[in-house]
Write a structure and sequence with these properties.
It contains 10 helices and no strands. The protein has helices at 8-15, 22-41, 43-59, 71-84, 87-100, 104-107, 113-132, 135-145, 151-158, 162-180. The longest helix is centred in the N-terminal third of the chain and has 20 residues, at 22-41. The radius of gyration is 17 Å and the shape is globular.
Length: 201
Amino acid sequence: MTDPAGGDAELIAASLEEPERFAALFDRHAPAIHQYVARRLGRDAADDVTAETFLTAFRIRARFDPARAGVRPWLYGIAAKQIGRHRRHEVQALKLLARTGHDPVADSWTDSADERLAAEAAARPLAGALARLSAGDRHVLLLFAWADLGYQEIAEALGIPVGTVRSRLNRARRKLCTAAGPAGAAGGPLIEARIHEGDPV
């Protein structure tokens, strides 16, 4: 897997001798990790989980293998483990969204009141379905839909075979399609249309 950002693997290697070089990796990737964590756990937890993710990455950077995985899957894999420690909070937030239809994180990306109302209506059944997914299925689905990782990257992030990624994603899609009903819910603020399309890789 090539390093799409160019230089990330070199930064990690250089940081072994010059730890301050790791800050550039944080600057480059922390915003995307933070956004992903905020979508999963809410803004309150996102700062802490993002910080934990990069502290962990810094501590274990000597084990990073650029031949095996890109930096993005490696970071998202660490983030997934940190999110797993907050699983109860994530499920509670999804159940609240399923009951109320209100997603405060999505408000910041929804421009008009009409769009927000449509998004919240679509989110309710999908949030309930997400809450009922196993942690493994939810990790695969949301790394695909929100972090925009391909199948191989998800496999590397979670340390599972690509075939497992495919089966988990297919199972999660079926459950979400059932929850969305005949209208398909148009994705809503929780799940982008990308999950209803074919393989990205």
